[in-house]
Each structure stands twice: as structure tokens, then as C-alpha cells.
């Protein structure tokens, strides 16, 4: 069950990436359809993918980061992506900081949604932690991840703190495996 969760998360992320690149688009008849592959976004995404694969094959450290930066720079130079600056200040947290609706969350209709998010988060984080731990060589001899409970507690604490602060969701990311691979 451990490896399929990590693989499922990876496939889901690949689907999101293909959709964001315009390679796959929504289709009411078939749910997913091919996008217009003559547009700049799918072409740049495909070139970026092959650049990352080539750099990874050549054992270049940071292949993913180099590929992302290269495609971003090409997109900016060709005018497909506007340059918004390197650093910007985050928006104010005042509208969302500690803005809790406890009574609304206790509504009977939301209980099933809360449990659904709970189980999705548990499987997502478990799969991510196991996938990254395997990549880093941190799995125990018996196939279990040592101290996984601590990692899940840290992740759940961060998720609660993030929601209290009004920030976007805080969680572990399967993309961390790319960083582990790069050293």
C-alpha cells in the first residue's frame, strides 16, 4: 500500500503539470483531451521536460532546477511570461489571521468534508514521506519508516498552525524527492 500511494500522488502531479502546460485540457465528452500543442506553453513544457531528462541522464546536480530556470528565462525573453520581479512582499495576513468559524465547522454537513480532508491528508503525507524516505535511503530493514509518527505529528502541527495564521496549506511535498535525488 505504501508504494502505490506515492505512485498515485506522482501520477496526480503529472496530470496537474500536463494540464497547467496546456498539453491536456478539459473535455466534457471524455473528461480529458489533447490541448493545442502548437501554443507556446506546451512546446516550452515539452522542451523543459526533455532538458531535465537529458541533464538527469548526464548526472547533472540540480537538473530539475536548471530545467525550470531555463524554461522560465526562455519564456520571459520570448515574451510569453511577464517578469514580475525577483522578490515581492507577501500580502497582509490581517484579513485571515485567527479568523476561525468554529461553530460553522461543527455543522453536521461539514463533518463529512472534514473527515474526507483528514483521510486525504493522511494518505497524501504518508505516501510522500515514504516516497521521499525510500529515495533518501531512510527506510528500515523491515520496510517501515522509522519515526514516521513524529514526521506526521510535525506535519499536522504545521497544518494547524498554518490554518490559524491564515496561510495556504502547509504540507510535505512529493517534489522533495527530486531534491533528495539531487543531493
TrEMBL record:
It is a multi-pass membrane protein. InterPro entries: Azg-like (IPR045018), NCS2 (IPR006043). It is found in: Endomembrane system. It comes from the Bacteria. Belongs to the nucleobase:cation symporter-2 (NCS2) (TC 2.A.40) family. Azg-like subfamily. Keywords: Membrane, Transmembrane, Transmembrane helix, Transport. This is Xanthine/uracil permease family protein. The chain crosses the membrane at residues 37-55, 62-82, 102-120. The keyword Flavoprotein does not apply. GO terms for cellular component: endomembrane system; plasma membrane. GO terms for molecular function: adenine transmembrane transporter activity.
Amino acid at each position: 500500500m505504501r508504494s502505490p500511494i506515492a505512485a498515485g500522488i506522482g501520477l496526480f502531479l503529472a496530470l496537474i503539470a500536463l494540464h497547467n502546460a496546456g498539453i491536456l485540457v478539459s473535455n466534457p465528452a471524455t473528461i480529458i483531451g489533447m490541448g493545442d500543442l502548437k501554443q507556446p506553453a506546451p512546446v516550452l513544457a515539452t522542451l523543459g521536460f526533455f532538458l531535465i531528462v537529458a541533464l538527469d541522464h548526464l548526472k547533472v546536480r540540480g537538473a530539475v532546477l536548471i530545467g525550470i530556470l531555463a524554461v522560465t528565462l526562455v519564456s520571459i525573453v520570448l515574451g510569453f511570461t511577464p517578469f514580475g520581479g525577483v522578490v515581492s512582499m507577501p500580502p497582509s495576513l490581517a484579513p485571515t489571521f485567527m479568523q476561525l468559524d468554529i461553530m460553522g465547522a461543527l455543522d453536521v454537513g461539514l463533518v463529512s468534508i472534514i473527515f474526507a480532508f483528514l483521510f486525504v491528508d493522511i494518505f497524501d503525507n504518508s505516501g510522500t514521506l515514504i516516497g521521499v524516505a525510500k529515495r533518501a535511503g531512510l527506510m528500515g530493514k523491515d520496510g517501515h519508516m522509522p519515526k514516521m509518527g513524529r514526521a506526521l505529528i510535525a506535519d499536522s502541527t504545521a497544518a494547524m498552525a498554518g490554518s490559524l495564521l491564515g496561510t495556504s496549506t502547509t504540507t510535505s511535498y512529493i517534489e522533495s524527492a527530486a531534491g533528495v535525488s539531487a543531493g
